[in-house]
Amino acid sequence: MNVLSKIKKFPKNFLWGAASAAYQIEGAFDEDGKGPSIWDTFTKIPGKTFNGTNGDIAVDHYHRYKEDVRLMSEMGLKAYRFSIAWSRIIPDGEGTVNPEGLKFYDNLINELIKYHIEPIVTLYHWDIPQALQDKYNGWESRKTIQAFKKYCQTVFKAFGDRVKYWVTFNEQNVFTAMGYRWASHPPNVSDVKRMYAANHIVNLANAEVINLFHQMVPQGKIGPSFGYGPTYPITADPNDVLAADNADDFNNNWWLDVYCRGTYPALVMNHLKDLGIAPEVTLDDEKLLKSAKPDFLGINYYHGGTFQQNQIEHPDKTTQHEKNFSKTDPYLMQPKGTQAQTPEMAMFNNVENPYLHKTQWGWEIDSVGFRISLRRVYEKYQLPIMVTENGLGAQDKLEDNNVINDQYRIDYLQTHITEMQRALTDGVDLLGYCAWSFTDLLSWLNGYKKRYGFVYVDRDDNGPKNLTRIPKKSFYWYRDFIRRNS
Ligand code: BG6
Predict the structure, then answer these.
(1) Beta bridge partners of 166
(2) Is the distance from the beta carbon of residue 55 to the nearest atom of ligand 1 less than 6 Å?
(3) Which of 33, 36, 105, 443 could be stapled to 130 by a disulfide with Cβ–Cβ 3.0 to 4.6 Å?
(4) pLDDT at residue number 479
């Protein structure tokens, strides 16, 4: 327990939740007037996803949402975070509104409210309509900001009376890097300068929509969800400490400072300018970024990173702990070999942490890092925090009598929640915790094999099978945990 003070209880109204994203669960990819999104297109490019898996059917939540919400209520969930597919609401991104798309989310929201489950709506979980990609180059054009505003205005108007919590962008750091630098997400671009340019446009869209929301839904709360990882120095050598600070600016503050203060961190901006890859920021942009104030920060937490002084200034340093770069781990963006054409080469070197174990997919398991993250973010920005994702991807096994004995997931969640409780005791203002995920779902690049849910869905990478929902052991554990803590 906490050595400094008595551990605090979670508040009665704490939002114990679970999360999902449209493309990963809905399926019905071309039904009821939905237009294609960039993920519908990208997953059809051979070799891009694990075994060619896609979200055409996903776990068929579109047709089974009532069953899923009933299971949520059986579990006692207080909140459910899901995303709206922009291409269901406005199939070509900016033209006519599709009433059937609105109807689906209207029904889902009403169903949640019927069971007293607070809806938390993400406006953008990576699936811009393909038509906007084709017409404007998606997030590389300022015209897309206007289209995004129109879509947001439509859903604020339709659901703002019932939905209090809204998330603007999910993990902007991940989708811009994977999409524009590593070509491992759509739009399949590999150009670091274009990544920074697109990222700036997304920042402007984020700010515009926060301002619009505050006019339209003054009683609501809105903020972005960021994929945060704490940075650690590998040793107490001040050069390693400096490298970890550099990594913090590069991996975290580059986004969080803009969201919360309206400015880019000077260190990274200067460095990008020197390299000729900085985004163009006008005076009007600066004003806009400063004007938008999120009401809370969404934090998605999986793992952080460990850093050593860079090899340009310190070529004599041995790097025996060096990490393998992975294009499929969104939290490990250290380039290697020919990919290492700046900008982080001069700032830090990403290395293995000898103290941490890893998941089956090589992600570090670091529950204390969760407490560190919450404290760092809260102390720095002084905004309430909603944990919008945290969970364990594993290969679950369906045993006889429909048993899924995912004790490893329970252990993971339990230790993370304990550290969150310590952070609460330390003084962090926390609104809720959404585990990733409610049902099993499509892992963007790892298919259906990498499972995260409390509820097993009987399908695999080869096809949908019967899509039966089966609560895992963790389902009953979370149900009992919520009962005890609210
Ligand atoms: C987050 C995303 O990056 O991590 C989720 O917001 C995603 O959409 C989750 O599913 C886990 O990632 P992965 O690659 O293991 O599916």
Answers:
(1) 121, 222
(2) no
(3) 36
(4) 98
Q: Ligand 1, residue 225: give the atom nearest the CA.
A: 6
**Cα(229)–Cα(254) distance, integer angstroms:** 13
Q: Is the CB of 326 under 6 A from ligand 1?
A: no
Residue nearest to atom 7 of ligand 1 (CA): 443
C-alpha torsion 452→456→460→466, nearest 10: -150
> Which pLDDT band holds residue 448 (cuts at 50, 70, 90)?
very high
Tokens standing for 471?
């609560």
**CA gap 443, 28 in Å, rounded:** 17
**Is 61 in contact with 68 (CB distance < 8 Å)?**
yes
Q: Do the Cβ atoms of 32 and 100 come closer than 8 Å?
A: yes
Identity of residue 85: A
C-alpha 317 – ligand 1 centre gap (Å): 34
Ligand 1 centroid – CA 443 distance (Å): 6
Whether cis (ω within 30° of 0) applies to the bond prior to 343 is yes
Mutational pocket test of ligand 1: of 444, 450, 451, 461, the residue with most ligand atoms within 8 Å of the beta carbon = 444
Mean pLDDT across the stretch 118-132? 98
Ligand 1 center to residue 80 CA distance, Å?
16
Assess contact for 170 and 126: CB atoms under 8 A.
Answer: yes
When the pLDDT of each residue in the chain is averaged and rounded to a whole number, the result is: 94
Most ligand 1 atoms within 8 A of CB, residue of 53, 169, 329, 389 to mutate = 389
Which ligand 1 atom sits nearest the alpha carbon of residue 328? 14
Entry pTM? 0.94
The answer on pLDDT for 213 being more than 70 is: yes
Question: What is the structure's pLDDT at 339?
Answer: 47
Whether residue 446 has its Cβ less than 6 Å from ligand 1? yes
* Lowest pLDDT segment from 87-101, 174-188, 309-323, 326-340: 326-340
Structure confidence by residue, pLDDT tens digits, 326-377: 666 666 655 555 444 567 778 888 999 999 999 999 999 999 999 999 999 9
CB of 369 sitting under 6 A from ligand 1 = no
Rg of the Cα trace of the chain?
A: 21
The neighbour count for residue 331, using CB atoms within 10 Å, is 21
Task: Show which residues are catalytic.
Answer: 171, 389
User: For residue range 267-306, what is the model confidence (pLDDT) as tens digits?
Assistant: 999 989 988 899 999 999 999 999 999 999 999 999 999 9
**For every residue of 251-278, which 3-state class applies, written as one string?**
HHHHHHHHHHHCCCCHHHHHHHHHHCCC
Sign of CA dihedral 448, 305, 432, 298: negative
Q: Give the position, in ligand 1's atom list, of the atom nearest the Cα of 227.
A: 3
Buried-exposed string 372-390: b where 16+ CB fall within 10 A, e elsewhere: bbbbbbbeebebbbbbbbb
36 touches ligand 1 (CB under 6 Å): no
Atom of ligand 1 nearest to the CA of 170: 6
- Residue 6 has a pLDDT of 87
